[in-house]
Amino acid sequence: MASKPSIPKGTRDFSPAEVAKRQYIIQTIKSNFEKFGFQPIETPSFENSDTLMGKYGEEGDRLIFKILNSGNFFYNRNKIELPESLASLQQNSAEKITLEQRIELNKFTSKISEKALRYDLTVPFARYVVQHQSEIEFPFKRYQIQPVWRADNPQKGRFREFFQCDADVVGSKSLWQEVELVQLYDTVFTALGLTGVTIKINNRKILSGIAEVIGASEKLIDFTVALDKLDKIGEDGVKKEMIEKGISEEAISKVQPLFSFTGTIAEKINQLSQLLSASVEGMKGVEELQFICEKVTQLGLATAQLDLDVTLARGLNYYTGAIFEIAPPKTVAMGSIGGGGRYDDLTGIFGLKNMSGVGISFGLDRIYLVIEELGLFPDTVAATSKALFVNYGETEAFAAMQAIQKLRAEGIKVELYPDAVKMGKQLQYADKRGIPFAVIIGTQELESSTFALKNLVTGEQVVLDYEGLQQQLQ
Amino acid sequence: MASKPSIPKGTRDFSPAEVAKRQYIIQTIKSNFEKFGFQPIETPSFENSDTLMGKYGEEGDRLIFKILNSGNFFYNRNKIELPESLASLQQNSAEKITLEQRIELNKFTSKISEKALRYDLTVPFARYVVQHQSEIEFPFKRYQIQPVWRADNPQKGRFREFFQCDADVVGSKSLWQEVELVQLYDTVFTALGLTGVTIKINNRKILSGIAEVIGASEKLIDFTVALDKLDKIGEDGVKKEMIEKGISEEAISKVQPLFSFTGTIAEKINQLSQLLSASVEGMKGVEELQFICEKVTQLGLATAQLDLDVTLARGLNYYTGAIFEIAPPKTVAMGSIGGGGRYDDLTGIFGLKNMSGVGISFGLDRIYLVIEELGLFPDTVAATSKALFVNYGETEAFAAMQAIQKLRAEGIKVELYPDAVKMGKQLQYADKRGIPFAVIIGTQELESSTFALKNLVTGEQVVLDYEGLQQQLQ
């Protein structure tokens, strides 16, 4: 191979410094998941295609990475049946593929590929719950932090391989779960030093209520998208857009209060309950929202802010109750860094009915970017050695290894420069690696069983016995 | 989907208890890697096919999982060129595939698949080093703990998805690295409580020396395989097998000392240096082995035993110096639980010459099985809550949540049962989850701001104020 090697587009190598920072975030999320009673599971990177296909819509199906059978689809087959229409494609190479050919190709694909890389953690989790239902004690609080893969067009902040960090509870409809999930968000972001995030909350049933009131559920997305622009284009602008989208003036007037939807959460809930009084489902949503917001407010949040946002329509297709979304601190220009909600029928797709679930997700890559931009990564994140022992040759290196062995047994990260090259080169290595101390054992130190400890930042150097050295490096 | 869902053969779901145990091993390996100065990197799950194909021999190529282009190979193409010979396959469906057809199919495969799941961590590491050489300070001590995928036939202990845990140094030929890697093995297994492992060591150059002495390098594998059976079939049996394999009696007589190859490491090295005195390369191997074994012995190991094993021929194709293999304690019937060695030209395949590397690997799945069999997993491994707060209804649950919030802020893992169902059901949940305590807040406790703490193992129950509760659960 002559040219420099590369990696597939949309994927990333992570350097030691990057892994350390990612691990810091993951470890913080993980330890708080566990503090809140969630338990880890892991599922295979690839699932049977049956498990994944058709669960994410047509667009999703297209973005699922498919794996050729048995590592190499033809090796294990004596014969391969290829549809004739594929051969004809070759002859008419300039023509676009027809629908019939696409169907044939689809069939062909499923013959040569029976496995696919997971697209998210939710469907594999649903599959896990159904498959292992007899071993699971419900309600089941699980967390899962694993990579997922999507054949999306890569762009800034969007990758073909990325981690998802999910916590879900299945098997209970209790709204205390929503209360705890809000607290969990608050606890994690506080622990990461990321103060000032906004936890936006809404409820699918409130959106249904609004749809009822405006008289057209199919216009709901248009309605919320327009309403979300209130800050930018003003009440008139929003109404203009709504009318253009086919929402009647009469319908708009019925939800007039939403155009001046401000105040405390309690005040907003009060307005909503007036607005949606005619909708049974809408009122159920108000009631749920009220319980969650009231409990969260009474118990108090450490640094995050709770906000009721009726334009929040995230995951409208599957959420049935609460909807969450996390906005980063306002000083950072970045989309949501987390989200979640309640879905009343998580496992129905695999034949297990009446299994309500609620969960949240943390957006690792975006959280990383926000913490980086705000300079919030602690200096201690990098997993670097505390000291480098300079190597002056076999005898000195042996004495160094004796000390190194004892220090490591005390849990102190130290290392020996492997070759007896020029000291300048060895210290340069320490510097580039961010190792703060060098330990020098020369002839004099060998004779007196001492160690010269050099602070590589200040240049200061002291001579110590082993105990002194250990104390300094501890 | 009517039938119960399943996962692809050779893959696994991991339950909370299993994840906790796996994490315990991984965490132990990871923290010791870092203590020894290794830094983490991560590479993408899939690489360009070019990067992987041809690096693992023909068998390896076959076992590499290939990914269809862009998630769906045909969607992004207006035309697909299929070789005519594939169409003919259909007509002769009963016939075996011909060599020509296989070549055509190979070409076809590389057209519809340009990416593949990584097969090990070594080739991606070599690719990483070459790609990022200008950012790396050499010698580069990296560790990597990530899954790999192989389309092997699954069997007991062999999976299609499994984790590798590798530590390697590139950019230095210093034998101190080998000394440290032996110590690292000893430190990790000691930390895991796995005492009595044997670290077998050999050297590729000694094997070359033996090949020189027996006069046929192509017979080396046959020779070592036969010699390895000495314990089982005795000297005569081994010699008979060697002769059957075409090794001459004269050649065998030249290495006669290997048939009574016992004693201390120093004695074995002494015998080898006599046996291989005519081979320059063999003597270089003896010298290297002597340095490593001498330093390791002088510095001392905590619980592992070092053993010189001249039949150790693992990875003969790529190792050029030291070869390591770890045998589990003799009480367990299990193959090697780790291995490694030195390879003088790791990155040559990607165009970067003269980059010597040495590394070791831990076999996570087998280590897991050994620790399980010996009952060495600590009881504290499972990440379960310390206490379950029983739910008696909204008011009581709110009081519980107030305490829970404070306890979590102290880092104590506690949870609320989400629904106010029968107490028996709630306690059964705690029991099944392995939660040791229940906290009960009833009317009485509410009035007196106290908590009834029930030990679920002994059944004992005490009434405490908040401070007492926190103390008990800390």
Automatic annotation (TrEMBL), chains A, B:
GO terms for molecular function: histidine-tRNA ligase activity. Keywords: Aminoacyl-tRNA synthetase, ATP-binding, Cytoplasm, Ligase, Nucleotide-binding, Protein biosynthesis. It comes from the Bacteria. InterPro entries: aa-tRNA-synth_II (IPR006195), aa-tRNA-synth_II/BPL/LPL (IPR045864), Anticodon-bd (IPR004154), Anticodon-bd_dom_sf (IPR036621), His-tRNA-ligase (IPR015807), HisRS-like_core (IPR041715), HisRS/HisZ (IPR004516), HisRS_anticodon (IPR033656). Residues 1-418 form the Aminoacyl-transfer RNA synthetases class-II family profile domain. It is an enzyme of class 6 (ligase). The keyword Nucleotide-binding applies. It is found in: Cytoplasm. It catalyses: tRNA(His) + L-histidine + ATP = L-histidyl-tRNA(His) + AMP + diphosphate + H(+). Signal peptide: none annotated. Its EC number is 6.1.1.21. The keyword Nucleotide-binding applies. Homodimer. Belongs to the class-II aminoacyl-tRNA synthetase family. This is Histidine--tRNA ligase. It comes from Flavobacterium polysaccharolyticum. The lineage of its organism: Bacteria, Pseudomonadati, Bacteroidota, Flavobacteriia, Flavobacteriales. The gene is hisS.
